[in-house]
Amino acid sequence: MTLVLPGAWAQNASIELTELKAVRDNGSLMLNAQLALELGPALEDALVKGVALHFLAEAEVLRDRWYWTDAKLGSVTRYYRLAFQPLTRRWRLNVSNEPISSAGLAGSISQSFETLGEALGVIRRQSSWKLLDLQTLSPDARQRVRYNFKLDVSQLPRPFQIAAGGQSDWNLQVSKTLRLSPELVR
């Protein structure tokens, strides 16, 4: 007879892009993304033990060219740093447009949360993210948005970078390309 405890069926880390949508707003092309992001036990354990996790969201707007590589019209990047504060028992999330180092958090927006789920909710919903001005787009050309979201393992302490190499919990990444419709560009 096997005894199974409730926590024994812990789910592995997973990520899925459930929505990716480009919209017009006040002369700008905006991006909305919705992620189904779940941290596995290895990532949650690292957070509780004081290791901050860094996530990276990137979006590029590209124009197709038949004679050369596609033209990059614009790109934006958003950096997330998630950490657990053991003294206050709260979760801290920093969001920035520039890389976040543990020494310099000055250029980031910081928020504290009671639970890990609340902090992950902010990362999961990326809304009204300005990609570029609509004047940059050509109504006659084929254009697309390439979106990428990942756990940035290069920001982890060196021992974790080495250990994370072969473990699927540490390999969180999702990418998708969205073709811009002519109606959206005009």
Walk me through this protein's architecture.
Helices cover 15% and strands 46% of the residues. It is elongated, with a radius of gyration of 19 Å. The relative contact order is 0.23. The chain has 186 residues and is of the alpha+beta class. A hairpin with a 7-residue loop joins strand 3 (53-63) and strand 4 (71-85).
Descriptors for this entry?
about 190 residues; alpha+beta; six-stranded antiparallel beta sheet; three-stranded antiparallel beta sheet; 9 strands; elongated; disordered N terminus
What's a concise summary of this model?
With 186 residues, this protein is of the alpha+beta class.
Which secondary structure elements does this structure contain, and how are they paired or packed?
Blueprint: E1 14-25, E2 28-38, H1 41-48, E3 53-63, E4 71-85, E5 90-96, E6 109-113, H2 116-124, E7 125-133, E8 143-151, H3 158-164, E9 173-179, H4 182-185
Antiparallel strand pairs: 1-2, 2-7, 3-4, 3-8, 4-5, 5-6, 8-9
Number of domains: 1
What is the residue-mean pLDDT, rounded to a whole number?
Answer: 86
Structural class: alpha+beta
**Helix fraction bin:** 10-25%
- Sheet of most strands: 6 strands, antiparallel
Strand order of the largest sheet: 6-5-4-3-8-9
